[in-house]
Amino acid sequence: MLTKRIIACLDVDGGRVVKGVQFLNLRDAGDPAELARAHSASGADEIVLLDISAAHQQRATLLETVRRTAKELFIPFTVGGGIRTLEEASGVFAAGVDKISINSAALANPELITQIALRFGSQAVVVAIDAKRREDCSGWDAFTKGGRVPAGRDAIEWAGEAENSGAGEILLTSMDRDGTGAGFDCELTRAVATAVRIPVIASGGAGGAAHFVEVFREGQADAALAASIFHYGFNRLADLKQELGAAGIPVRWPC
Amino acid sequence: MIAIVDYGAGNLVSVKKAFDWLGQECVITSDPAEVAKAVKVVLPGVGHFTSTAALESSGLRQAIADAIVRSVPFLGICVGMQWMFERSRESASVAGLGILKGECDRFPESVKSPHVGWNSLEIDPRSRLFRGVPSTSFVYFTHSFRAPVDDMTVACCEYGGRFSAAVERDHLFGVQFHPEKSGEVGLKLLSNFCAI
Question: To 5 degrees, how large is the angle CA A156–CA A161–CA A167?
Fold first, then answer.
């Protein structure tokens, strides 16, 4: 049976894993290569590395970090953050990555999705969508530039366009829930998961095992991603998978 | 030297990385002469069946066919396995190698496609490729087309019906999933292939 995937996310700045609490007070959580291996050993089904460093000159540092992380990682590995062109994507793939995640650049130029998909296959293109609930609760808006600027697009409609352009998966982050630990936005996740045929990865709000059960059952997510809850205690990921298994969610366990 | 055949279909770095980690000498190549010298041939592939047309025009198809006749162990991965069959509905005009009977077809409308993620296998205990791999193992898939189950199938997977997750006959092997992305299980399988 196809299992629900648990994805560990590493937010990386200047070659180190950091986890921002409301984008401030970045706390150093360690070496990306080491953490990726530890997460893989404790049962992560995939690793996503997001480059959150603003400074463009850190690109070379990022590629070196990616290469080092990929070297001894034998589960799917996705890298995102600041990829704007096919050439930049090619550089990241050459460093040993299986999928790239694009967000702002795809919104600005949906053709980029198609270009990367034609060259590397749709399975290698994840379109990340940062979605925020509209104040009148009529739906969700997509945001760009790290969640700072509204993209002027309905999140669900944009997910459909991304699929038609060649995206292989949607990484859907609820900006309302991100960093709260209050649970995934199941309503948003279900709205996107039922609107597209490609897999949807739910992100934002993970605080405990019950939240994962909810987002797989009610949200119909194919995968769920979290960062900080996995970083400060490696056994938690293994514990999570056992709890999900006990709750009747199909997971890869034991690995 | 293991030849990892590059025909322009996607990213082969992950496959090479896995063989490197196992301490196996390997090279990513699009040169038929390199394939002719190889002790083992690996045909990866991600993306569209159409991309396998490049094997024909580059002379790689002939080099692979010749290697198979010389009993050089061969492993097709993903589209590389689908190419071992006669054809795929993904691209009816492109012929596969045809060493396996039948054609690859898309998943039914009843399930999401592509099939992405870790799925379980039913493994034939006689398989050499899966020697030492627990029968309840999970492996990582990402594909929209699938191969039929036939008498060469050594592992089945269930997703919108049963399909061939792995095939094996003599020195010929094919896997629909990605052993280079399937953790310990995948590395064990690649190590078994290297030992053949």
Answer: 105
**Residue B14 with chain A: CB contacts under 8 Å:** 70, 96, 98
Dist CA B69 CA A109 (whole Å):
48
Does domain B2-195 bear CATH number 3.30.420.10? no
Closest-CA distance of chain B to residue A24, Å: 34
Could you tell me the domains of chain A? 5-246 (3.20.20.70)
B6 Cβ under 8 Å from any chain A Cβ = no
What is the spatial distance between Cα A172 and Cα A189, in angstroms, rounded to a whole number? 7
| pLDDT tens over chain A, length 255 residues | 999 999 999 999 888 888 754 444 556 778 999 999 999 998 999 999 999 876 556 677 889 999 999 999 999 999 999 899 999 999 999 999 999 999 999 999 999 999 999 888 899 999 999 999 999 999 999 999 888 899 999 999 999 999 999 999 999 999 999 988 999 999 999 999 999 999 999 999 999 999 999 999 999 999 999 987 876 655 678 899 999 999 999 999 887
The residue in chain B having the minimum alpha-carbon distance to the alpha carbon of residue A117 is B47
CA-CA distance, A127 to B20, in Å (whole number)? 31
- How far apart, in whole angstroms, are the C-alpha atoms of residue B121 and residue B157? 5
The reply to whether residue A120 touches residue B21, judged by beta carbons under 8 angstroms, is no
Q: Please tell me which of the candidates B11, B21, B113 has its beta carbon nearest to residue A124.
A: B11
The model's pTM is 0.94
- Residue ranges of domains in chain B: 2-195
The answer to whether the Cβ–Cβ distance between B182 and A75 falls below 8 Å is: yes
